[in-house]
Amino acid sequence: MKKQPIGVFDSGLGGLTILNALRRELPQEDLIYFGDTANVPYGSKSKTAVTKFSLAIARFLQSQGVKLIIVACNTASAQALAELRKQISVPVMGVIEPGAEKAVHTTRNGRVAVLGTEGTVKSRAYPKALLKRRPGLHITQQPCPLFVPLVEENWGQKPAAELIAREYLAPVKQSGADTVILGCTHYPVLKPMLAAILGKKVTLVDSADTLAEAARAFLTEHGLAQTRGKGRVRIFASDDPARFKRMAGCLLAEKIGAVRLKKLTL
Ligand code: DGL
Question: Which CATH number goes with the domain that contains 233?
Fold first, then answer.
């Protein structure tokens, strides 16, 4: 079992930010990344659709012999995790719980804000995970649907991105939150700009490192950790792998190898 790879999936490219953290924390592990470029974005789709895509990807990863599946996508973690755990026999970890865990340890004034896609916000997965850990927290949620296309188009540094961010963050600033969860795979790319708008007193939390630490703890605890050698990364995309490869450069910290096409059976 130790030698089996870990499967990681996202609706597209954004989950590569999670892959980077996993590579840092678990350099010996083989990783299989699946980007569902045929069905992205998940953020504006129904729970039924997101669950259907997630199950199809998990079944593919399972067919590749993975020992653990990591749902790097916040929207899929928020909407499909329970169903995945019901239907898939491999252990499944999502990004919501690690993000919530980090946030409750970060906040000093008990006020937390969550930025995410419409689907993630609507599911209330973050408020539920936060309140389970610390009842009485004051939570503000803000959907930021325009952030994903801005990052995908590499427009994160443009003045238009800042104008939009100021608009989205106005209610967050007003809420007095001292901790803001970047509840979407793409938002860590905008971190410097978001931090500048929110000011020094606000801490931005992303779940990548906490998730990678939780994955390490899980593997060690279950005797599944690969302790020797150098892990390799295999990447699949459900549509246009050449475009995926071209765009992945700005998100992945290492040189990207071949991206293979794998159409999903829905
Ligand atoms: N991966 C999604 C998430 O983290 C963002 C992109 C999408 O909407 O599919 O919520």
Answer: 3.40.50.1860
The pLDDT of residue 250 is above 80: no
Identify whether residues 10 and 62 lie together within a single domain.
yes
Residues 6+ apart with CB under 8 A from 150: 156, 158, 160, 161, 164, 190
* 37 touches ligand 1 (CB under 6 Å): no
Full-model pTM: 0.96
Chain segment 145-162, per-residue pLDDT in tens: 999 999 888 899 999 999
In a domain, 196, yes or no: yes
Mutate to test the pocket of ligand 1, among 17, 19, 42 (most ligand atoms within 8 A of CB): 42
Catalytic-residue membership of 250 = no
**Domain range enclosing 222:** 6-94+209-261
User: Edge-to-edge, what's the strand order for the sheet holding 203-205?
Assistant: 138-143, 111-116, 179-183, 203-205
Residues 109 and 166 in one domain: yes
Cα of 2 from ligand 1 centre, angstroms: 30
Q: Which of 92-96, 184-188, 195-199, 233-237 bottoms out in mean pLDDT, i.e. has the lowest?
A: 184-188
Residues shown for the chain? 266
Structure-token match 């003045």, residue found = 159
* Catalytic annotation, pick one of 26, 40, 73, 148: 73
